[in-house]
Amino acid sequence: MSIEFKNVNYIYNQGTPFEYQGLKDISFNLTDGNFIAIIGHTGSGKSTLLQHFDALLKPTSGEIKLAGFDITSKTTNKNLKSLRKKVGIVFQFPENQLFAETILKDAMFGPLNFGMDADLAEKNAKKWLKRLGIKEELYEQSPFDLSGGQMRRVAIAGVLAYEPEILCLDEPAAGLDPVGRKEIMSIFKEYQKNGHTVILITHEMDDVAQYADDVLVLQQAKLIKHTTVADLFENPEWLAEHYLNQPHAARFAQTLKQNGFKLKQTPLTIEQLAKSISKKMREYNE
C-alpha cells in the first residue's frame, strides 16, 4: 500500500492576523518499503509535512492515505492512536522528550502505551537500546545522567521499540560527530531493509546520496520535485538554482574534471568515488 498525499494544504492560525500557509497543494505517492528523503531550506515546509504523516497536523484541505487510514480536515482524534502505532516520529533533538526515571522505562514507554505486553516491551526496549549502543549496566540510571548523544540514542530506541511500519525522522543526526552520524543512519537504513518505510528530513546531501531511494524537494511550502536520488544530482545547475548542494563526492569529482581528470559517471558517495578513481587509474595504466 502506497502513501498518497492529494492536493494537501495546511494553513497555520487560519482566520487570524497571523495566518500563513505551511503547505501548498502537495501531491505525491510514495512506495511502501522505500527510504525517502525530504529536503529544502529552513521554512520550506519540511517539518510541517512530516507532522501530517501521523496526523499531529491535519490538512486544512486535501486528503492523505497511508497505513489504512484516510486523513482529511474532518478526521477526529478518536482512532489516531492506532495510526500512531504504525507511524513513529523521531523529532529533531528527541532527547528533549525524555521524562521517565530510568533509561529502560523511557524506552519501554512507547510499546506499553500502544498496548504491547510488559515482557515484550522490555525485550524490544533492551534490543534497541543495545543496538543503539547503550550499555546494559546503564538501564536503571536516569536518562538525564547521560551525555547529549546518549540521550538521543535512548529517545530513538523508545520509538524503534514499538517498531512502527513507517518511521519518520526530523534531522535525527543533527549535531552528531561523523562517526555517530554514520552509526545512527546505518541503523535507520537497516530498519528500512527489514521491511519498513523510512522518511528522513535532512540538510545533509551526503545522507541523501548514501541512504535514500527517492527525494521530495520543498520550496516555499510547495513540492517542486519528486524524483530519484540519481536524477536529483544529475543536474548541478538545477541544484545551484535552488540553493542545494551536491554530495561531497560529486563536488570532488567536479574539481577533478576541471583539472582534466574526468570520470565517466558522477559519483554520489565516497565509495563510488573511490571505485571510479581506481577504474580510471587502471585505464591510464593499460
Distance between the termini: 51 Å
Cα gyration radius (Å): 21 Å
Strand line-up across the major sheet: 6-7-8-3-9-10
One letter per element, helices H and strands E, the order comes to: EEEHEEHEHHHEHEHEEHHHH
Structural class of the secondary elements? alpha/beta
What fraction strand?
15-25%
Q: Tally the helices: what do you get?
A: 11
Q: Could you report the average pLDDT, rounded to the nearest whole number? A: 93
Identify the overall geometry: globular
Describe the sheet with the most strands.
Answer: 6 strands, mixed
Low-confidence stretches: none
Helical coverage, percent range: 25-40%
DSSP, total strands:
10
Textual characterization of the structure:
This protein is of the alpha/beta class. The chain has a domain at 247-286. 38% of the residues lie in helices and 22% in strands. The chain has eleven helices and ten strands. The protein has helices spanning 46-50, 80-86, 103-113, 118-131, 148-160, 178-193, 205-211, 229-232, 236-241, 248-258, 270-285; strands at residues 3-12, 20-30, 35-39, 61-66, 69-71, 87-90, 166-170, 197-201, 214-219, 222-228. The protein has a six-stranded mixed sheet. Helix 3 (103-113) packs across helix 4, helix 3 (103-113) packs parallel to helix 5 (148-160) and helix 4 (118-131) packs across helix 5 (148-160). The longest helix has 16 residues, at 178-193. The chain is globular. The protein starts with a strand and ends with a helix.
